[in-house]
């Protein structure tokens, strides 16, 4: 593309269809709404029925939302969910692997009972969904896969070795899939959120000492708002990022520089 051909239309997702796991709560809701506001229709996947909030926000943006209740860790479910996206919306152009859990325990008590479910949700399900979605994307010679990594893709995971391990795994998986899928015009990237105001961090934010330590470490001097992730999502899902591949985009207010 010549520089004269650059246009803000490259950020438009009009005519694209997105599949977002965990797409009706927390950070996933922000990912879903960002894609919708940029013009995409969205199939969100969650463990429980949507309360209507995400649907209302997406429909207010003038886009279509479908919702599927599914446990993406169960055998065969990732393939079924991808097929549903194609059947309901017509294609799967964008996949956002947002579903994730964080279980905490002191190291002496952190056993397989905590390790296994985190690996299943955070890493194995993301792999299986990307594997299934990529089959359709290869056929259409285009696609965007956005995995959700973390600061803990780069840092240790105090009280949650499985979280750090799975998020480091997401970073490695992102690079590996980029290496294989780039030839099909499929870009595979990840977003690594820092400390954000979500239900998962509520207890930490309620602890004055913990809250102070974290905020003092962030150059932006505040916790992230879910809206802070929306621009990065649209960029990585759009044609504007067609030459960005295998990258882990950190959105952390500068936490990692200190």
Strand content: 5-15%
Radius of gyration: 18 Å
Query: How many DSSP E strands?
Result: 7
CATH 2nd-level architecture: 3-Layer(aba) Sandwich
Instruction: Give the C-level CATH assignment.
Output: Alpha Beta
Model regions low in confidence, pLDDT < 50 over at least 5 residues: none
According to CATH, what is the topology?
Rossmann fold
- What order do the SSEs take from the amino end to the carboxyl end, as H and E? EHEHEHEHEHEHHHE
Helix content, binned percent: 40-55%
Overall number of domains: 1
What's the arrangement of strands in the largest beta sheet?
3-2-1-4-5-6-7
Mean of pLDDT: 97
Please outline what is shown here.
With 258 residues, the chain is an alpha/beta fold. Helix content is 41%, strand content 15%. It has one domain (7-251): Rossmann fold (3-Layer(aba) Sandwich).
Question: What does this molecule look like?
Answer:
With 258 residues, the protein is α/β, with parallel strands linked by helices. The protein has a single domain, classed as NAD(P)-binding Rossmann-like Domain (Rossmann fold, 3-Layer(aba) Sandwich), CATH 3.40.50. The protein has a 7-stranded parallel beta sheet, with helices on both faces. Strand 4, helix 4 and strand 5 form a beta-alpha-beta unit. The protein is globular and about 50 Å long. It starts with 16 loop residues before the first strand and ends in a 7-residue tail after the last strand.
């Amino acid at each position: 593309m010549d520089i004269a051909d650059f246009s803000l239309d490259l950020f438009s997702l009009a005519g694209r269809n997105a599949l977002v796991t965990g797409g009706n709560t927390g950070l996933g809701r922000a990912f879903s709404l960002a894609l919708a506001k940029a013009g995409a229709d969205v199939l969100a996947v969650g463990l429980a029925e949507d309360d209507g909030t995400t649907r209302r926000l997406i429909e207010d943006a003038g886009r279509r939302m479908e919702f599927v209740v599914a446990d993406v860790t169960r055998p065969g479910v990732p393939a079924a969910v991808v097929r549903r996206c194609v059947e309901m919306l017509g294609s799967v152009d964008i996949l956002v692997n947002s579903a994730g859990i964080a279980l905490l325990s002191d190291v002496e008590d952190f056993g397989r009972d905590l390790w296994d479910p985190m690996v299943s949700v955070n890493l194995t399900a993301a792999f299986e969904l990307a594997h299934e979605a990529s089959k359709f994307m290869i056929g259409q010679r285009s696609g965007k896969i956005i995995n959700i990594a973390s600061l803990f893709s780069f840092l240790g995971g105090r009280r949650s070795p499985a979280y750090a391990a799975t998020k480091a795994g997401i970073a490695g998986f992102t690079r590996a899939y980029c290496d294989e899928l780039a030839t099909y015009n499929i870009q595979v990237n990840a977003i690594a959120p820092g400390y954000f105001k979500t239900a998962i961090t509520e207890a930490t934010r309620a602890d004055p000492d913990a809250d102070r330590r974290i905020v003092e470490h962030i150059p932006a001097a505040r916790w992230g708002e879910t809206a802070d992730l929306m621009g990065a999502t649209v960029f990585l899902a759009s044609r504007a990022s067609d030459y960005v591949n295998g990258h882990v985009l950190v959105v952390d207010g500068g936490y990692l520089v200190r």
